[in-house]
Amino acid sequence: MWEVPEHWTMQDAATVPVVYSTAYYSLIVRGRLQPGETVLIHSGSGGVGQAAIAISLSLGCRVFTTVGSNQKKEFLLKRFPKLNSDDILNSRSTKFEVDILQKTSGKGVDVALNSLAEEKLQSTVRTLAEHGRFLEIGKFDLSQDHSLGMAIFLKNVTFHGILLDALFEVKHEKQAVVSLVQEGIK
């Protein structure tokens, strides 16, 4: 499906398309991320997180991300010099909710790419701005059929469960992701 650049290792060839397919499908196809928007990306130091940060920064978005340690924060600052150190938050507690709302003057984020569960998922939902888009790539709360609460929809938000395997059932979305990944590889 993709041409593999000569300088890639076999590990790159096996992993990069999967993480970028997930990130592009989530952010661009389902989340309709636009240049200049504000985005929250959980687990920023993971593969999908790094791909999502790269895509978001390439669109000129303000990126908030969470990590579980200072070591991971330092890694991201070296990998993505455009990230603001103060916008890399702790994923080990729900304090990121208060921090984001404070840093956005109460507005919240336009798009949230979520992989956290339970109370951290609920905190993430509350960071959404009016007309925000919530992109759930974690499977725990989906598979456990946990409640979301309806009040958030008073902000006219959308919620997307992102299942990459479902992408292959919708031809035009599959082609869009293949094109986005191929363009990104170039």
Essential attributes:
single chain, 186 residues, alpha/beta, Quinone Oxidoreductase, Chain A, domain 1, 6-stranded parallel sheet, 6 strands, 42% helix, Enoyl reductase (ER) domain-containing protein, transferase, NAD(P)-bd_dom_sf
**What is the domain total for the residues?**
1
- CATH evolutionary superfamily: Medium-chain alcohol dehydrogenases, catalytic domain
Briefly note the CATH topology name: Quinone Oxidoreductase, Chain A, domain 1
Q: Ranges with pLDDT <50 over ≥5 residues?
A: none
Radius of gyration: 16 Å
Largest sheet, in brief, is:
6 strands, parallel
N-end to C-end Cα span:
14 Å
Question: Please, could you describe this protein's structure?
Answer:
- The structure is a single chain.
- The protein has a single domain (10-185), classed as Quinone Oxidoreductase, Chain A, domain 1 (Alpha-Beta Complex).
- Helix 1 (10-30) crosses helix 2 (47-58) and helix 1 (10-30) packs across helix 7 (171-185).
- It has helices at residues 10-30, 47-58, 70-79, 95-103, 119-126, 140-143, 171-185; strands at residues 38-41, 62-67, 88-90, 109-114, 128-136, 158-161.
- Helices cover 42% and strands 17% of the residues.
- With 186 residues, the protein is an alpha/beta fold.
- Strands 3-2-1-4-5-6 form a six-stranded parallel beta sheet, sandwiched between helices.
- It is globular and about 45 Å long.
- InterPro entries: ADH-like_C (IPR013149), ER (IPR020843), NAD(P)-bd_dom_sf (IPR036291), PKS_NRPS_Biosynth_Enz (IPR050091).
